Amino acid sequence: MGALAGVVHPTIYKAGTIIEEMLAPVSYRGDSEEISTYRFNKIEMGAYGEESIASNPPQTVWAMLDGTIFNEDALREELKDEGYRCNSDSTAEIIALSYECWGPEFLAKLNGSFSVAIFDTKKHRLLLARDKVGIKPIYWSHHNDTFLFGSELKSILATGLMPQIPAGEGIASYLFFGYIPQDISAIEGVNKLLPGYYLLYDFDKNFIIHPYWSYGSFFLEKNDEDITAITSHLDGLIKDSVAIRKDDEESSCFLGDDIASAVMACYAEKSPHGPSPMGCSTSFEGMKSASPDVADAISEKLGIVNTSSAITSRDILDNLVKITWFLDEPIADPSLLKTWKLATMAREQKISRVFSSVGSDEIFAGDSRYLAYSTKLWKKKPAHPVSKALIRYIAFPITKVFNATLAYHLLWKWHVKHPIIDYLNKNAVFNKRKLERVSPDLANRFDVETFLQKFFRLRAIDDDIAPLLYFSAKTSLPDNALHQYDRLTAANGLELRAPFLDSRIMEYMANIPDAIKIQKKETSVVLKSLLKDVFPEDLLKTPKKELSPDFGALLKDPALHEIFSMLIEGTVVESGYISKRWLKKRVAKAKKGKGSFLQLWAVLSLEVWMRLFVNTPKPHGVVDIPLKDFLEK
Questions:
Q1: Cα(402)–Cα(335) distance, rounded to whole angstroms?
Q2: pLDDT digit string (tens) for 32-60?
Q3: CA 368 to CA 38: how far, in whole Å?
Q4: What is the pTM of this model?
Q5: How far apart are CA 192 and CA 478, in angstroms?
Q6: How far is CA 498 from CA 101, 216, 409, in A?
């Protein structure tokens, strides 16, 4: 674990000592209380840990690391072949030497979960980079000629240099997706660096953002191997991915009702590296979920000890404020309560590593929602070459002069059929029609069709499910699932291990056709084939359960009714983000056990976030008070 932060001041005369202030709110991420700092000219950088900052021997390149590089031994050998010698065990030193040897291109060689900051004293240039999938976060802003960056949003806000103004596009996209996607953030003027990208910023205030890894390119060629050959190759990849992530430390596996967690636990248990893992499982009290039963069956078959616990409304009332503080951004996904519960259970087991199957849905087509879109969803509209030329080179440029949004909308419609929009609207917390009723002002700040223009790779991927897997891996995986896993495991002193997110596995599976991944309305076919000799068929056939849309018992809980009622006079209504009339009707329906729990949860999460990060100047220490007391303040 770790945390990094830094600032490039407008002039050397503005340089000060704000690094400690930036790192104070994220002290929970550090595995050491000691802060290492580096200062040169206009730049200040800092990170937790004695070996978190290192340089090359001439001290012309300084590097900071938040995270873990799993192939550092191989990098040491490759550097040695290039004539470079590592003088310590510091991973940051490997980063500094790799940059000196190969420049920014070295990032493609890294296999790990990381964010890095590198300062080149010769070029007066700062490099920021994030791992290929987005396990580790990094935020940045350029405001009043001051460049700020940090592992979390809190670090930037703690300086007091950035106005704490909600970003309209960010809040609108949150209400649509239930999380804030891509490079958007919840605060105006603050950005997230995209996974697989690096940013270069120099003392002349110039900066560029560039990709160093293209996940979409691996979908363009298809693997023609049969399921036997695919299973054999994948078996080797997973074994190695688990092996390089497993050490002598005690570990635990997050278990669920999905086959992916069974695969993860099986490979972690059979790995010759380190002790056998323990297990943790949880589910919502009163929910239709098979998690505990399936998790118990998995652990019993593998001979590992599994600890199980249910989530109740008390977990919401006691922990939501604290959870939201750790998350940095609002997330309208109630399963984050499961993530928090699992993390606290693992902490109580007194372990420091947790293995998770996160990412399996996006890589192995494990989500049952994909089944409804398994035929002819994403096919491009056929077009005659002449009509293609007329649209692209005549109609589009002319329309763009008068209405750029309409021009891009028509171009996108020409390339992609309507069901892609249909899928997103059906899975939205508030689709465009609902958002116009809930928040008319914000409805104009986000358009899903315009947003989709960022994903040009979608047009080139021919399979039916593959484009959806690609889109999910670029949005909900880093900005919802990994966001909460990284923050909430770190908050409990844990290091996340996600072997399925090894780039070698992702690249290989991107080449596998849909017909192999999903067969006869059955998901995760490749994963199931790995365990056919380990688990009985009835366990392998257990479908992954989705949470009930109304969350049953939680929607009828009197204590939550009181909380929802308090929202009517809350910040989100007062600020004009949520219609008071709409909210009153939803709360009244909830008291009768009707309506959407997810939508009320989204409003509640946004309310808590706004009070923590907009209404409270310069957030610092953890806010740990009961939800009702917090809303009454």
A1: 44
A2: 778 899 999 999 999 987 778 999 999 99
A3: 49
A4: 0.91
A5: 11
A6: 29, 20, 37
